[in-house]
Amino acid sequence: MKKDAIFVFSEDQLGYSFSDTHPFNQKRIVLTLDLLKTMHAITEEDIVPPRMATDEELLLVHEPKFVEMVKKAGKGEVGSEIGSVYGIGTEDTPIFPNMHEASAMLVGGTLTAVDEVMQNRAGYALNLGGGLHHGFQGKASGFCVYNDSSVAIRYLQKNYHARVLYIDTDAHHGDGVQWTFYDDPDVCTLSIHETGRYLFPGTGHVTERGNGKGYGTSFNFPIDAFTEDESFLTIYETAFREIVEWFKPDVILTQNGADAHFFDPLTHLYGTMEIYKEIPRIARELADEYCEGRWIAVGGGGYDIWRVVPRAWSHIWYSMKNLPAPTGPLPKEWLDRWQSESPVPLIETWEDPNPLYKPIPRKAEIDEKNAHVLDRSLHYIRSEQQPR
């Protein structure tokens, strides 16, 4: 019987671990799943284990020499000097044991999610272990070894002949996915991110629109530092609605980085939990309207793993299950279980404290600049005489 939604997870996904002090920490998946279980929002029947991606599947995107180098590095056969040519052994993406197997497991989790949806076993699918959007064809980057979203999109094209709309709301530009499909007219990428003037990877400009036959299928919305909820959500909903109507995809893949929140230590945006309630709600609504409900969601960034990520990512699952958004206190049982381990006091409610931060004196200026970005990026489709 078809399930309304499935949650891809096994402890094998936790093997993707650079070090105890590295900001990319997969414990956030454990915290999120435990919160959902404590809320009685998920059952064991909802959980589907991931499989490991095969070499053939990885090579849909990644270069053979790169995959070979990742395998050797995970066995201790490559030093950081040689590895750094391939983006591994760097400060951002250190080498760790079994790097290939752990990375391939995250890719396989997203492919599992794809098959569950496209083979009509589930309406929606969530793989929080995925979302490694900085991985390039021949190089790791920004905490990302293999790029599960890029592999999944090629897999969707090869096995299901699908037109794919990729939506990225991580605070960092979804560069790896964009460049992989920059000249592909059947893949449309939309990224909302903090401007590269301040933040890694420094790309994602409005003028990056695609190339050749793919020109016009790349949309970037580089928002200003200190952007707040209202401006973020205006861009997200307006862009998503206009682009999905124009592009008419068969399936929607969303990358759900949770690092646009005020508490995130690596970014400079001023989002609150309100954006994380709305992002998946709108994704589900538009997937239902334009793609017969085919929606696959992956994780991504999110570096305040205690106060932000579990609450933010739980909202994706609540949207997929069509459950009312949770409000009020978090379960005392969950708070008691994790507070002793957390280096910061946990937020005790689903909502953020109010006020979360002091008023931004440049709010009007920031909102105006973001509105200009929205208009510039959407000008291409708004000025077209014929629909796509």
Automatic annotation (TrEMBL):
**Which SUPFAM superfamilies does the entry mention?**
Arginase/deacetylase
Q: Where is the Histone deacetylase domain?
A: 22-318
Pathway in which this enzyme or protein is active: Ketone degradation; acetoin degradation
State the UniProt keywords alphabetically: Acetoin catabolism
One Pfam family name is: Hist_deacetyl
Q: Which family does it belong to?
A: Belongs to the histone deacetylase family.
Its recorded name reads Acetoin utilization protein AcuC
Q: What organism, scientifically named, is this protein from?
A: Sporosarcina gallistercoris
